[in-house]
Amino acid sequence: MTSIALEMKRSIVLLAGTRQASDTRESMISRAARRANISFRQAKALFYGETKDPRASIVESVRAAIGATETENLSARFIALETTLAHVDPEFFGPAVEALREAARALGGQASAPGPVVGSVARKED
Fold first, then answer.
1. Model's pTM, two decimal places?
2. Exposure on the CB side of residue 96, measured as CA atoms within 13 A
3. N or C: which terminal CB in the chain sees fewer CB atoms within 10 Å?
4. Considering the chain, what percentage of its residues have pLDDT values greater than 90?
């Protein structure tokens, strides 16, 4: 199996997501195909290694879908960390929370509302 074929197989598995109890292999391949915006047949060929040299358009679609998935996951992790830090010690972690909020926003995530960190105390400048 060539390196591109192996990359595409791994990508189809990642795009399929976590296997549910009711999932079949075909339903997982179908889910990956929808996420990559390719046909079921193309995704199946990538998964089973039936093509050693897939078309560039298919490779680009799969890579774009993987990139979007990774971006969504990273944004969700930033938001979760931001929320946790804001509840643990808002005053101490205030700058980190703001940085995470901005990073999640830059990635297109739904960060919490901008403004002061929950529980933080506004300080007057002398």
1. 0.68
2. 15
3. C
4. 43
